Amino acid sequence: MHRKQEQGSGATGFWTKDVKSVLLLGDGQKARVESALPEVRDWLIGRGIQVQVEADVRHFAQQHLEGFPLPNPVPDLIVVLGGDGSVLTAVRSFGEAPVPVLGVHFGRVGFLAPVLGEHWKKGLQDALEGRCLVEERMRMEVELEDGSLFLALNDAVLARPVESSMVGLSLFVNGEHATDYHADGLILATASGSTAYSLAAGGPILAPELQGLVVTPISAHALAHRPLVLAPGSQVTMKVVRSSQGVALVLDGQRVAQLQESSSVTVRRHRVNYPLLVPSGMDPWQRLSDRLGWSGTLAELG
């Protein structure tokens, strides 16, 4: 299924599966996606591929959470038209049984959806003809004290309510106390999430293939508190020490629980990575440069 990877691509190899079925998911809130969906569907059907279309990826995911069964048989490929949020929603729906995802973004920034909307046809052709690389993205398993388990691809965030003051949080790594934070919150991110909220809060950017965890405080009161990069096998516990109104636990942008004082959440690496597809030649650093607007050369410095 995988051929040898390109030098320096950061991917595990080429994805060469013979695609017979595709689940086509769209962001129902984007007009450009609404108009593109029938074009993409017809293009795929014209190549003899069975296509299931879901025009609202959020509604699709909500149905799954309410017990609605996932497609049977499982599709060979998921194509998501939207942006990073849409990709995260699709990944969440297939959490325990990952299906490769190719994201086509129609928004402003697309780190998880590498194909530009106007280039969807070439992106899909690359996938069908074995010219897409597989980026095995690390995920996190998040456990509450009551035993509830959740998965996250990007990040797990403890955030204070908007109307409350700073909160007190403690960080434990592999059972050992690491430090305490007086801050607006705390972000625990994977490499995928290092270009999301963690980046906005001052965290480092990790190469997509890195299997590590980034701990980034949100507006910490102490200047000495800097982002930490932990080994992938680390078990991380975040405990609420002080908060007058509780702290929200937000996973990949979705609020899943409210933690009170003395409550904690434990995060560890999930045993199965999630495969995201990237067309060959789309170097991860060029993607970062394009998305973040990096510019300038040594020649311009004189």
Question: Gyration radius, to the nearest Å?
Answer: 20 Å
> What is the 3D shape?
globular
Structural class: alpha+beta
Helix content: 10-25%
Biggest sheet statistics: 6 strands, antiparallel
Which helices and strands occur, and which strands form pairs?
Layout: E1 2-3, E2 13-15, E3 21-26, H1 31-45, E4 50-54, H2 57-65, E5 77-82, H3 84-93, E6 101-105, E7 115-116, H4 120-128, E8 132-137, E9 140-144, E10 149-152, E11 155-159, E12 167-173, E13 176-183, E14 185-189, H5 197-200, E15 213-218, E16 228-230, E17 236-242, E18 247-251, E19 254-259, E20 264-269, E21 274-279, H6 284-292
Parallel strand pairs: 3-4, 3-5, 5-6, 6-7
Antiparallel strand pairs: 1-2, 2-8, 8-21, 9-10, 9-20, 11-14, 11-18, 12-13, 12-17, 14-15, 15-16, 17-20, 18-19
Helix pairs in contact: 2-3
Structure overview:
This protein is of the alpha+beta class and 302 residues long. It folds into 2 domains: 2-138 and 274-301, Rossmann fold, CATH 3.40.50.10330; 140-269, Tumour Suppressor Smad4 (Sandwich). Helix content is 19%, strand content 36%. The protein has helices at 31-45, 57-65, 84-93, 120-128, 197-200, 284-292, and strands at 2-3, 13-15, 21-26, 50-54, 77-82, 101-105, 115-116, 132-137, 140-144, 149-152, 155-159, 167-173, 176-183, 185-189, 213-218, 228-230, 236-242, 247-251, 254-259, 264-269, 274-279. The strands form 4 sheets. Strands 10-9-20-17-12-13 form a 6-stranded antiparallel beta sheet, with no helix packed on it. Helix 2 (57-65) runs parallel beside helix 3 (84-93). It is globular and about 60 Å long.
